[in-house]
Amino acid sequence: MKQTTFIASALLFMAITSCHEKQPVKEEAKKFSISDSMAKMIAIDSVQNCFISDAITLSGEINFNDNSVNKVFPRGSGQVIESKVSLGDKVTEGQVLAVIKSADIAGNYADLSSANADIAIAQRQLDNTQSLYKNGIASERELLEAKQNYEKAKAAKNKIESVLSINGGKNTNAGGTYVLTAPTSGYVVEKKVNAGNYIRPDMGDYLFTISDLKDVWVNANVFEADIPKIKEGYEVEVTTLAYPDKVFKGKIDKVSEVLDPTNKAMKVRVKLDNAAGLLKPEMFAKVTVSNEQQVKALCLPTKALINQDGKSFVVIYRTKDDMRIAEVNILKTVGDKTYINSGATEGDKLIVTNQLLVFQQLLDTP
């Protein structure tokens, strides 16, 4: 009997032990946390209460600053013997731009030679008359007339020398050639002449334009419906096809008072710093004009948004162990700012760099 009881007890113990061994052990779910290495890869920004900006996009063109250019005109008619520079070349003050052979210059030197001869003749006549006057042979009237002739000869020479000085002075020679030089350092932004070209007396046009391009103008078109939204002083952001990821910031410094009769648009001008020399005349530009309204809304950095399934989300950050995904209702997006109606509150911290990695981890974590 005792043996039977012992066996039964042993079987019961084994059964209970077997049941315990078959029960699976539940593991505690791990919560996602940002590691130290990932913390170096993310950036944090915050939700703010901002004035709503109303942006207008205009099309425009880069031009050189007319207030910082020098136009080089010919000093006389003739033929261009040499053109020393090309469009876009960098030049220094005094550098030769072109060599021109001119009949006008040759004529001026011929007149100068004749004037020197006239002075020599007038000088001899004056000396002779003075000698005769001292000896009582010539009258005072004759002496005065000799002096006047000498002064007239000198005046004629001075006039010719002044003309030569205006036409180039030391940059001319008796062979009838003169050189055009750069009046200032900068870049050749316009060139209208090449070797062999003739310059007519009635031409009256400039041959070169030199600009330093340290700053440039952007001329943009504003159509009638947008005219009330544009004023001097408004901030703008300019982008170009050449540098689509680079934003140039400036302000509207001039608004035209009349419409262009061709396209019925009003011209506005933006002055941009161009110290790096990236912007070139004739480049196409997209001009975004910002105008702050007197209405506020919650705003967040546009780069914080995550778009999925037609919805917009942000990752709200409290600590490296406490983050959550929030769907936001977008009011409007203007450049690097997005205005929202709901989904976040003022002061919320948002992950704005590599937030998609964190977003996916939060989705995959139960």
Topology readout:
Blueprint lengths: L1 H21 L13 H4 L4 E3 L1 E17 L4 E4 L5 E6 L6 E2 L4 E6 L1 H32 L5 H27 L10 E5 L4 E6 L6 E2 L8 E4 L3 E9 L11 E6 L7 E12 L5 E9 L10 E18 L4 E3 L2 E9 L2 E6 L1 E6 L2 E6 L6 E3 L3 H10 L2
Features:
366 residues, alpha+beta, 5-stranded antiparallel β-sheet, 26% helix
Model description:
This protein is of the alpha+beta class and 366 residues long. Helices cover 26% and strands 39% of the residues. It is rod-shaped and about 130 Å long. The model has no long low-confidence stretch (mean pLDDT 84).
Overall helicity: 25-40%
Quote the average pLDDT: 84
**Could you tell me the radius of gyration in angstroms?**
43 Å
Terminal Cα separation, in Å?
A: 57 Å
**Regions with pLDDT < 50 over 5+ consecutive residues?**
none
What is the overall shape? Answer: rod-shaped
Spatial sequence of strands, sheet with the most strands: 2-11-14-13-12-15
Strand segment count: 21
SSE series? HHEEEEEEHHEEEEEEEEEEEEEEEH
Summing up helix and strand content along with how strands pair, one would put the structural category as alpha+beta
- Mind describing the biggest β-sheet? 6 strands, antiparallel, barrel
Strand content: 35-45%
Number of helices: 5
Short description:
The chain has 366 residues and is of the alpha+beta class.
